Amino acid sequence: MKIEYKILWFEDQFEDITATVEAVENLLDDFGFKADIEKVEVVTPGVVSELSEKLSGYNPYDLILFDYQLGKDGRADGMDVAISLRQHLYSDMIFYSASPRSELRKLLYDQNVEGVFTAGRYTFSEDVDPIIEDQIKRISDVNMMRGIVMDEVSRFDRLLRELCLKYLEKDEKYRDLGEIKLRRRFEKQAKKLLKKSTTIDCPIEQYSNVQKTNFDLVRRGLSDFLKLDGEKELSSALSEEGMLNELQNLRNRLAHIEGNLDTAGVMTLVDNESESFDFGRFIQIRKNLREASALINEKLNMVGVV
Predict the structure, then answer these.
(1) CA–CA separation, 76 vs 41, rounded Å?
(2) Which pTM does this prediction carry?
(3) What class, spelled out in words, does domain 4-139 have in CATH?
(4) Among 52, 108, 250, 261, fewest CB within 10 Å belongs to which?
(5) Of 273 and 21, which is predicted with more confidence?
């Protein structure tokens, strides 16, 4: 799971449950996730069959929601969805209706469908929120967060390089600055890097090659370009005390340090910066990743990369 939480939602009257959808989005936001909801409003047996076959090969969804009453005139109902999907996949599913939950459970039992949660249409948040929260807690372990952080920061690396290249291709003043700054930073590193710094003829080639210029040098270089351009917000995030450097350091720590899990479910990474990672810490990490991603994407949009 990444910082997006994907939901497949079967409902033929989304206009009537706007507040319910917003409540789910807000709940996920509170947990540090961005809701990515795919809505299926016309639910025929053919649609259900096609989706079941497709999802049996690859299922990207973290949760599947379906209403019982999905319309008439040849349309499928929630029971059809439950039966068909459960034959092929075992993602968390929630079957909801205005009918009593006891009736939904009986329908599932009579059709021998197991492992599907039930919820009331008028008690939706009360019934569904604990299921989502429990699922998020189950996947919020240190190994999952290690993967999320490494994946997102690796993506930041690529996007920051693209931004650097945009500046380097834009004007000679950025290329001059890039060359100067790269020389200075290489000279501060080991002798091996000092020898490397004397051969920088093309900063565009240097910044585009992950083997020649690491994330730290790209981060510093882009910060210089942004300062020259008068940009403050992303430049601040790229500084030594900024969010991107903090996330990069966190990625390195999560990637290389073994964690100890105590009986309370709190993970501690033990090194010279001993730190505990509990559920609340994971929420904050996801929010920091989303904030950093928004800053980078905003700048990419401004310069025409995405």
Answers:
(1) 11
(2) 0.70
(3) alpha beta
(4) 261
(5) 21
